[in-house]
Amino acid sequence: MSIKTAPLSYGLGVEVLDVDLASPMSDAVFGEIRQAFLAHDGLLLLRNQAITREQHIAFSRRFGDLDTHDAVPLDRHPQYHELLMVANEPVVEGLSNGRYIGQQWHSDLAPSLRPAMGSLLRAVQVPSAGGDTMFTNMYAAYDGLSEGMKKLVADLHGVHVRGRKNVSAEWEANNRRINPPVAQPVVRVHPETGRKALYIGEAVQTFEAMTQEESRPIIDFLIRHATRPQFGYRHRWRNNDIVMWDNRCTMHLALGDYDQSQRRHLERTTVLGTPSGHICELAA
Ligand code: OGA
Ligand code: MN
């Protein structure tokens, strides 16, 4: 093992201390980073990475195919479709305001047929206080359920509906046209670790083949359970941080806890995962 690491929290996560993404990296070192990411339940921090957009994309691509963010065309960089702009002012004219991205517990691309494996979010400019992101460990959430609850949720599918607060009419019209509701299994087996993880989020409106009235209390319980503080980590951003998370075994939330007159600008690449889920109707 040649990389130096330190745990981020008891719940999950690891910081890799001695890498520089602006320099070439051997496959051996990359392999160690990947292993550390998997071993610490899918959360990785790299600080002080003053890299270009091209370097961000190139490093991300070593993990797998990247999404071009066709589901949110008004949020991606017009020249670099692999980069999603997460910023409270449009980074490029014509883009939507990303101020409200991620302000509910979720896993990236869950409302799609090829949900994300990983996301690599890089802080370009962060406010002087706050603008934090919370993460939670969905292996721990699954493992912490009773045997009875594990049986109850084993075959359920949650219907994920993509949405966002305070978006333009154009964003909403696009969204409705290109992002139908998608049913995803509530329990997924992680394809690399073989462990079971809970797969749910606040975009889940109902379970398939159940009414909303029946589903709601179980959804609410699962989210409350999964987001217990002891399963989590709260990231305080510094400029040039890169946080990578595994969407197959974590959820995250943008707190929006900052002075909106200050700039918050981050950029994300999204590594595609294995196909999952099916398009479905949203029952009443
Ligand atoms: C994301 C996201 C959280 C944040 O980029 O996928 O949810 O704190 N961002 O900006
Ligand atoms: Mn997100």
Describe this structure in words.
With 284 residues, the protein is of the alpha+beta class. A 7-stranded mixed β-sheet has the order 1-2-3-13-5-15-4, with helices on one face. The protein has a 4-stranded antiparallel β-sheet with strand order 11-7-8-16. It is globular. The protein has a single domain, classed as 4-Layer Sandwich (Double-stranded beta-helix). α1 links the parallel β2 and β3. The protein binds N-oxalylglycine and manganese (II) ion. N-oxalylglycine binds next to β5, β14 and β15.
Major sheet description: 7 strands, mixed
CATH topology: Double-stranded beta-helix
Strand order of the largest sheet: 1-2-3-13-5-15-4
The CATH superfamily is known as: Clavaminate synthase-like
Bound ligands, each once: N-oxalylglycine, manganese (II) ion
Distance between the termini: 54 Å
Query: How many DSSP E strands?
Result: 16
CATH domain class name: Alpha Beta
Cα-atom radius of gyration:
18 Å
Give the helix/strand layout.
Elements: E1 5-7, E2 14-16, H1 27-39, E3 43-46, H2 53-61, E4 84-87, E5 116-125, E6 133-137, H3 138-143, H4 147-153, E7 157-160, H5 169-178, E8 182-185, E9 187-189, E10 196-198, E11 204-207, H6 212-226, E12 232-235, E13 242-246, E14 250-254, E15 265-272, E16 278-279
Parallel strand pairs: 2-3
Antiparallel strand pairs: 1-2, 3-13, 4-15, 5-13, 5-15, 6-12, 6-14, 7-8, 7-11, 8-16, 9-10
The protein binds N-oxalylglycine (OGA) and manganese (II) ion.
Entry keywords:
binds N-oxalylglycine; 284 residues; alpha+beta; Double-stranded beta-helix
